[in-house]
Design brief:
heterodimer, A: alpha/beta, four-stranded antiparallel beta sheet, 12 helices, 14 strands, globular, B: Arc Repressor Mutant, subunit A, 5 helices, 6% strand, elongated
Chain lengths: 292, 126
């Protein structure tokens, strides 16, 4: 059976403050989804609801048609990897691994040990004494080795240095290929992680701005570079996100699909047509509301 | 294989072009197995769906074909097909642009021809 998760009109209010509002989406099949949002956009709150860690004020989250909240059978299939306070954890790392192995039916201890080696995580250390990066590595290792059908990583890279993050991304892909599942990764490190995603969801000020295949999102804009006059002519009446000029050369970021007529025109003027990065589109899309 | 991907063009398109280059340059022979999705995922650290999109375009274009349970292979005649396509692209992208620029500089086609001849003589052109 193809896995399906569905958010139905999820809202969360905290002390009269709207944290997330009317979130609707469906994800079908095993894939890696990027949940993008600026700080305070509501990513952690939304993921907490998906993981059944907290109830929504309104709406519900369904896994294969079943509401996950207070549903042990559904919750067993979801793992939520997040930063947490381990100040008073006197247990050793290996003890945490044991606990995960006992509570997670698909937990692969050999893989967890292999990951611990890759991240250079000492298993005989006390969890409380780990550096922040190593704490993140521990959470990530348990998240990956649990092989839960729905795996949620909430900015799981926090505190990791660049080489450790690289290992994290590599392992997400490698283990996904060998053990396909539904993985949602929240992040604002978009330029580093965009290659991982098949689908992208953008959360902005508590609302879901878009949820689409990544390639479709990337087709929402393009860049034109070349002779300033020709660029201006083509960019006229279009939504220009950003303009850069150097001498007689101009480069514009255009929001909107590149239609064939314009493409031909641009080529005939010798203009260079380029793609926008997910990060550039994200920055723009999460800025718009500030002005409107 | 190209070591890195750039951000000027869609990634799936670059995967497609990378395989095409291998075939055109003769590093990937007809009837031999193309790199697998998993190999490409591990090498470029990109999502398997992106890799598949590039590979499937090559299947649709008749450059690769699928063998069930084995993988993708280079079709017979793939190299000739690609060379033909590239010659057309060469004409449109390089030759047309060259003439456009020549025109801008006030050079005639004969002038350009002379330049090509002298380049050839100097042995700069390969």
């Amino acid at each position: 059976m193809t896995i399906q998760v569905k958010a139905e009109a999820i809202s969360l209010r905290k002390k009269n403050k709207q944290i997330v509002q009317n979130i609707n989406f469906t994800i079908e099949g095993n894939k890696i989804v990027g949940l993008l949002g600026r700080n305070g956009a509501g990513k952690t709150s939304l993921l907490s609801i998906l993981a059944a860690f907290r109830p929504a004020t309104n709406g519900r989250f369904l896994l294969n048609g079943e509401d996950v909240f207070e549903n042990p059978r559904a919750m067993e299939q979801i793992i939520f990897v997040r930063e947490r306070n381990v100040e008073y954890e006197t247990d050793k790392v290996s003890r945490w691994m044991d606990a995960a192995q006992q509570s997670r039916p698909n937990f692969d201890r050999a893989y967890a040990d292999e990951l611990a080696k890759r991240f250079r995580l000492p298993q005989d250390s006390q969890v409380a004494k780990l550096s922040r990066g190593m704490q993140s590595a521990l959470h990530v290792i348990i998240g990956l080795a649990s092989r839960a059908p729905v795996t949620l990583f909430d900015e799981a890279y926090l505190g990791m240095d660049a080489p450790a993050r690289e290992i994290f991304y590599e392992e997400v892909l490698r283990d996904f290929v060998e053990h396909p599942r539904l993985i949602i990764l929240s992040t604002h490190l978009i330029s580093e992680m965009d290659g991982l995603f098949e689908e992208v969801a953008i959360l902005h000020e508590g609302e879901l701005l878009l949820h689409e295949g990544k390639e479709e999102v990337l087709e929402r804009g393009y860049r034109l570079t070349g002779d300033a006059e020709a660029v201006d002519q083509l960019a006229e009446n279009k939504r220009v996100l950003k303009t850069e000029s150097l001498g007689g050369t101009k480069s514009v970021m255009v929001y909107g699909e590149l239609v064939e007529k314009d493409e031909r025109l641009a080529r005939s003027h010798g203009l260079e047509i380029g793609t926008l990065s997910l990060q550039e589109l994200f920055i723009h899309l999460t800025e718009v509301d500030d002005h409107e | 294989m190209r070591p890195t991907l750039d951000d000027k063009r869609p990634i799936f398109q670059q995967i497609r072009e990378m395989i095409e280059d291998e075939i055109v340059d003769g590093r990937l022979l007809e009837e031999s197995q193309a790199p697998s999705t998993n190999q490409l995922v591990a090498y470029y650290k990109i999502n398997p769906a992106t890799v598949l999109k590039g590979l499937n375009e090559l299947v649709d274009a008749g450059i690769l074909y699928k063998k069930r349970g084995v993988g993708m292979f280079v079709a017979k005649g793939a190299k000739a097909t690609l060379l033909n396509e590239r010659k057309q692209v060469f004409q449109e992208d390089y030759v047309a642009r060259m003439l456009q620029e020549a025109n801008r500089l006030g050079l005639s086609v004969e002038d350009v021809q002379q330049m090509i001849d002298s380049m050839k003589k100097r042995g700069d052109a390969k």
